[in-house]
Design brief:
The complex is a heterodimer of chains A (about 110) and B (about 120).
Chain A (H helix, E strand, L loop, with lengths): L3 E4 L2 E5 L4 E7 L3 E9 L5 E6 L3 E5 L2 E6 L4 E6 L8 E9 L6 E2 L3 E6 L1
Parallel strand pairs in A: 2-11
Antiparallel strand pairs in A: 1-3, 3-8, 4-5, 4-9, 6-7, 7-8, 9-10, 9-11
Chain B lengths: L4 E3 L2 E4 L5 E6 L6 E7 L6 E7 L2 E4 L8 E4 L6 E5 L8 E8 L9 E2 L3 E5 L1
Parallel strand pairs in B: 2-11
Antiparallel strand pairs in B: 1-3, 3-8, 4-5, 4-9, 5-6, 7-8, 9-10, 9-11
Classes of the chains: A mainly beta (about 110), B mainly beta (about 120).
Chain lengths: ~110, ~120
């Protein structure tokens, strides 16, 4: 089945710093979502982005479907950005949402 | 509007007992999904409903797990003869009508602990 790998696995930032999280996937996809799982476990939708670029406030994402990767950009990070960021995909050959390995982000004041 | 809700938020049970976990999807969403998340890992697919029928139950780990959605809205995940390895957070998600190609919205999860 499709493989989804995220990097880096862990990221520690000081408040105000910028960061880039990466998601690589091994097959063509027709659904790609970025989620933030907060410290209480809630999965929060960030972007639905099977291709192209989107921006929402301090967050933006780009998916290059032909090269099978997606990037999540976090600018001017805040302590509330802490948590685990997951990329999840559905490939054309399956009908399951497959989650990546996650990036654990810690932002310190 | 209201998001996906799940009850209970926490469930502690003893090995061998039967448990039911409930999911209320976003109103009007025809697709409903169950996932399981073990500590330190991403969620893993269990089962997908389109309306009342299970369109894909290939993620259910064994026949102790069963899920229903009798009226096409609320769903119940049922686990028989629970084992300690069933301890995890069980997540429910819903989407409007395009199935896996559409945005999925997740509930807060039910944390199941089997002693």
């Amino acid at each position: 089945g499709i493989q989804v790998e995220q990097s880096p696995p862990d990221l520690i930032l000081q408040e105000g710093a910028n960061s880039t999280l990466r998601c690589n996937f091994s097959d063509s996809v027709n659904n790609l979502q970025w989620f933030h799982q907060n410290p209480w476990g809630q999965l929060i939708n960030l972007f639905y982005i099977p291709s192209g670029t989107k921006q929402n406030g301090r967050l933006s994402a780009t998916t290059v479907a032909t090269e099978r990767y997606s990037l999540l950009y976090i600018s001017s990070s805040q302590t509330t950005d802490s948590g685990v960021y997951f990329c999840a995909v559905v490939s054309y050959n399956t009908d399951k949402l497959i989650f990546g390995t996650g990036t654990r982000l810690q932002v310190f004041p | 509007g209201a998001g996906v809700s799940q009850t209970p938020s926490n469930k502690v049970t003893e090995k061998g007992k039967y448990v039911e976990l409930r999911c209320d999807p976003i109103s009007g969403h025809t697709a409903l999904y169950w996932y399981r998340q073990s500590l330190g890992q991403g969620p893993e697919f269990l089962i997908y409903f389109q309306g009342t029928g299970a369109a894909d139950d290939s993620g259910l780990p064994n026949d102790r797990f069963f899920a229903v959605r009798p009226e096409g809205s609320v769903s119940t995940l049922k686990i028989q003869r629970t084992e300690r390895g069933d301890s995890a957070v069980y997540l429910c998600a819903s989407s409007s009508n395009q199935g896996f190609a559409d945005t999925q919205y997740f509930g807060p999860g039910t944390r199941l602990t089997v002693l």
